[in-house]
Design a protein that fits this description.
alpha+beta, six-stranded mixed beta sheet, five-stranded antiparallel beta sheet, 30% helix
Length: 566
């Protein structure tokens, strides 16, 4: 077993939740926590939804939101808790610690979670108490167990939906949360479930993806799910494989349990670098993996029926008609997913003020959010709210498609800063580049390292952080050093019927050279594209060497750097 597995054997990771109350009551420092529980406690705390920030003494804490669906009351509590508890100390800048967002902000993630920073251990019980009152949890927001279950953020709203899968999402989430039998898996276990024909929930890049299907059984036409397994990103990205099974909605919990049981029993617990379920599916092959799941399933699974997925959308920004007459949902654009807790609480209050009794706030996998069940006559009033001016439902294409991970501001693994850079770049690119009128979004995803938290491999344009040494010694940054922040530069990724991971076209591009390089690429794209051709499609049709040549036409050192340390 690897070291992490030994930590989990020494103490069941869910036991750490009780320990947090003790740490909080005694106001223990990080040093005192480690002295009492050992170094493995930092790993086990993930099961409480807590990651130690790089700033010692503070945590990032992750709130799970199954399917991204929140009541206005829940969303308001999240915003208010952020205002009250996610505050930086004066020694780290206090209210001025971030020049774009100030203080007391939250991050919407690509897994429909909410992340908050600057949380002290002594404040966690208060957060949990306030969460308990409205049915929220941080338990298993992190760690080697079932993470937040994804779904279409417009579940129950869109007319291209085959059926509303939110009840199934809730049932699967309820089964795994605080379930000690399945809370110690070889690695994180990511599930997505949707009844949407546009696969908004990204089934192709999850460990388990349930997508809509129908099948005739005993003369009756039934709706249910097909299953994809073994998808994922990071190092060794893999698209999910389809199993020959048809799963009725009431059997989804048992199917997901059987997959988790398979992973639990025969997944790798030795080499943590290849412990993810996608490596097990690749090793066994989809057919043998399916056989292993069937052996562990307590129900007989029929073979597959008719697949009802027609493509991939993943974007709900803008004002949209709901299938309920006279109602709308509005998708607000949050560049890189970060916004103030006060602004999120304001959006929640607006949902309650302008929406029907069924109004909700939904989190999307592109780090944006929706306000739902708004009558026609109230849409303009909602759009006039102050928060709606900052998080416009009618953004430019780069702002609309911008996704950014936490970055080196808080993350111990990130090499570069991402959140501020993503927001600044998106807005600057919207001003500098004329994108063809028929293109609503350019998906630009920035990860601070190779861990793929921002999902760069499925973007039109993907970045992963590097420290770059400029080869030309006359090229220096503002401090006179030739070591600068930079990134690997990828092009041409997408999900859907034409799914494909991007190609890493250029490596170690200095950050200051990226926007000039993109200007060159989009000038060539606009001149050469076929009618209706999307940017990722054009990139795939151009040889990588030619793409590099186009980028190097910029008045910037696009290709004059190497990864620092190479």
């Amino acid at each position: 077993m690897n070291t992490t597995e030994q930590y989990k054997q020494n103490k069941h990771p869910l036991d750490v939740i009780d320990d947090v109350y003790d740490y909080a009551d005694e106001e223990l420092s990080f040093e005192e926590i480690e002295e009492r529980a050992g170094g493995g406690e930092w790993e086990r705390l993930k099961w409480a939804g807590m990651y130690a920030q790089k700033q010692e003494g503070y945590f990032m804490i992750r709130t799970k939101v199954p399917g991204g669906k929140l009541t206005p009351e829940q969303a308001e509590v999240i915003g208010e808790v952020t205002e009250d508890l996610a505050v930086a100390p004066e020694e780290y800048g206090g209210e001025e610690q971030n020049e774009l967002w100030g203080d007391a902000y939250l991050d919407i993630t690509t897994r429909q979670d909410i992340q908050k920073h600057w949380i002290r251990v002594e404040d966690v019980p208060e957060m949990w108490d306030r969460y308990d009152e409205v049915g929220l949890t941080t338990v298993q927001g992190c760690g080697d167990s079932a993470r937040n279950v994804l779904g279409c953020p417009a579940a129950g709203l869109d007319d291209h939906e085959c059926f509303n899968a939110q009840p199934v999402i809730d049932a699967v989430s309820d089964f795994f949360t605080e379930n000690r039998e399945y809370a110690n898996l070889p690695r994180k276990f990511k599930i997505t479930i949707t009844g949407c024909a546009h696969d908004c929930a990204q089934s192709q890049i999850n460990d388990v993806g349930l997508v809509p299907a129908k099948k005739e059984i005993d003369g009756e036409h039934l709706y249910g799910f097909h299953a994809r397994v073994g998808g994922g990103l990071s190092d060794g990205p893999r698209m999910g494989s389809e199993l020959d099974v048809f799963i009725e909605p009431e059997d989804a919990v048992e199917f997901c349990r059987a997959v988790a049981q398979t992973f639990k029993e025969i997944g790798d617990r030795n080499n943590r670098g290849v412990c993810r379920m996608r490596y097990l599916v690749e090793q066994l092959g989809p057919e043998k993996f399916e056989e292993a799941v069937r052996d562990r399933c307590t129900i007989d699974l029929p073979t597959g029926g008719q697949n009802l997925t027609v493509g991939y959308q993943g974007d709900h920004v803008g004002v949209h008609d709901q299938k309920q007459d006279g109602l709308n949902y509005v998708g607000f654009n949050v560049i890189a997913g970060r916004m103030g807790g006060d602004e999120f609480a304001a959006a929640a209050r607006a949902a309650e003020k302008y929406g029907t009794e069924d109004a909700s706030v939904r989190l999307a996998t592109d780090q944006n959010f929706l306000v739902t069940h708004i009558p026609d006559e109230n849409v303009d009033d909602l759009l006039a709210e102050p928060f709606a001016q900052e998080y416009s439902p009618d953004p430019g294409p780069f702002s609309r498609g911008a996704v950014g991970c936490t970055g080196n501001e808080f993350c111990n693994y990130a090499i570069i800063e991402t959140k501020k850079r993503t927001k600044r770049w998106a807005r600057e690119l919207d001003e500098r580049i004329d994108v063809p009128d028929d293109i609503e979004a350019i998906r630009m995803h920035m990860s601070g390292c190779s861990a793929s938290c921002a999902q760069p491999q499925i973007a039109d344009i993907g970045f992963r952080g590097e420290t770059v040494k400029l080869e030309d010694e006359n090229s220096t940054n503002a401090e006179g050093d030739n070591i600068v922040e930079g990134m690997d530069f990828g092009l041409g990724g997408s999900l859907g019927a034409d799914n494909e991971f991007l190609d890493w076209v250029e490596s170690a591009v200095p950050a200051d050279s990226v926007i000039p390089a993109l200007e060159q690429l989009f000038e060539a794209y606009s001149a050469d594209r076929a009618d209706g051709e999307k940017f990722y499609e054009w990139c795939r049709g151009v040889d990588n060497e030619q793409l590099r040549t186009i980028m190097q036409g910029a008045d910037a050192p696009v290709a004059r750097g190497v990864a620092h340390g190479d």
